Amino acid sequence: MRSGPSSPSNSPSRSPRATHSRSGPGRTNRPLGISIICALGVLGFFLTFLPILEIASFGGGAGFIALVLLVFNFGHLVILVGLWNMNSSILPWAYLFYGLGLLFDLVTLSLGGMIISLVILGYLLSVADTFD
User: Fold this and answer.
1) Is the separation of the CB atoms in 41 and 80 below 8 Å?
2) Does some domain include residue 88?
3) Which of 10, 26, 81, 103 is paired with 1 by a 20 to 30 Å CA distance?
4) In angstroms, rounded to a whole number, what is the distance separating the alpha carbons of residues 93 and 82?
């Protein structure tokens, strides 16, 4: 008795996209690093949301700064959702966002932030071919 894959005539036809998005029941081909980046990014979104609202409560110039930070925070969330869904059209935005983060870390001389930004950018470049 043979237990290998069935012949093409016995198996239902699937589109290449359907087979790419799932490798087994309930499993995706999303790299583990992307899942980690997204999970930590969503955690960061929630941890920064309330402090941004507190800054907005001061009004005036602080309110404007809070509005800018809120736009960046929601933009980051959109990027994270796109990365989670393996959407290739979000990659240029992710490069821009994390590149601006790297630039900000350089200006503020944040060595830890620079290392994290470089690792994320390098990782995104290395897995870019796995996106749809």
Assistant:
1) yes
2) yes
3) 26
4) 10
Residue 27, phi then psi, degrees to nearest 5: -110, 140
Q: 70 Cβ partners below 8 Å, 6+ apart? A: 52, 56
| Domains in the chain, number | 1
Structure tokens at 116: 């994290």
The per-residue pLDDT for range 85-128, each reduced to its tens digit, is 999 999 999 999 999 999 999 999 999 999 999 999 999 999 99
The residue range of the domain holding 63 is: 31-130
As a whole number of angstroms, the distance between CA 85 and CA 23 comes to 15
Does 85 reside within a domain? Answer: yes
> pTM (2 decimals)?
0.76
Indicate the Cα dihedral angle 19, 23, 24, 27, nearest 10°. Answer: -120
Looking at the domain assignment, is residue 114 inside a domain?
A: yes
Query: Both ends of the chain: CA-CA distance in Å?
Result: 38
